[in-house]
UniProtKB/TrEMBL annotation:
Tagged with keyword Cytoplasm: no
Domain K Homology: 40-113, 147-186
Alphabetical list of Gene3D superfamilies matching this protein: K Homology domain, type 1
Top-level taxonomy: Eukaryota, Sar, Alveolata, Dinophyceae, Suessiales
Protein source organism: Polarella glacialis (Dinoflagellate)
GO molecular function, one term: RNA binding
Protein name: K Homology domain-containing protein
Length: 186
């Protein structure tokens, strides 16, 4: 019994399959004998709103993997526990060449409402006026005080479930986004 077969005149048989596929970049030349762009890989840190991170990551990480595949760089979103408590921002680290980073930054900007670089320069800000000023600062400015306005909106009985959402999720989202307290009478 032979460990490998030999073809007459060709030497040992070439390996095929997954193990034969070289991974990563080859140094010096590509498959087409063209020089490979040997740009140095660096890291860029962006800061995005916590609420935008779900869009950037996507369901089961699909959007994040798509960004990585299209831009050929590594993207890492910081965990929720590491979020800046005051600004409600989370870090997005992008590792790759400058061309790859710029492509990934463009994709992150498309998905987010607010984004700034690590130096503090705002790259995108599509937030509404309530989102830009923290609640404590609004109270200092007198925009929210003890004499808050109360508005009553009547909803048809068959639409109440739609307003509440499953386990009250929709009401919680509206309260969080608007900064208002919603009370529903039975």
């Amino acid at each position: 019994m032979r460990a490998f077969s030999r073809s007459p005149g060709r030497g040992p048989r070439q390996r095929t399959g997954v193990n034969a596929i070289p991974l990563g970049r080859s140094t010096g030349e590509s498959r087409n004998d063209e020089p490979v762009d040997d740009e140095e890989e660096t890291q860029v840190r962006l800061w995005v709103l916590h609420s935008d991170c779900a869009k950037i990551i996507g369901r089961q990480g699909r959007t994040l993997r798509e960004i990585e595949a299209r831009c050929r760089c590594r993207v890492k979103v910081s965990k929720e526990e590491l979020m800046d408590k005051e600004t409600k921002e989370r870090a997005v680290d992008i590792m790759g060449s400058s061309r790859e980073q710029n492509a990934a930054i463009d994709m992150v900007l498309e998905l987010s409402q607010y984004c700034r670089d690590d130096g503090g320069e705002v790259l995108k800000d599509n937030r509404g006026p309530r989102d830009t000023v923290p609640k404590e600062a609004r109270e200092d400015l007198g925009e929210a005080g003890p004499e808050e306005k109360r508005r009553v909106i009547e909803v048809l009985p068959e639409e109440v479930g739609r307003l509440l959402g499953r386990k009250g999720e929709t009401v919680k989202i509206v309260e969080k986004d608007s900064g208002c307290k919603i009370e529903i009478d039975k």
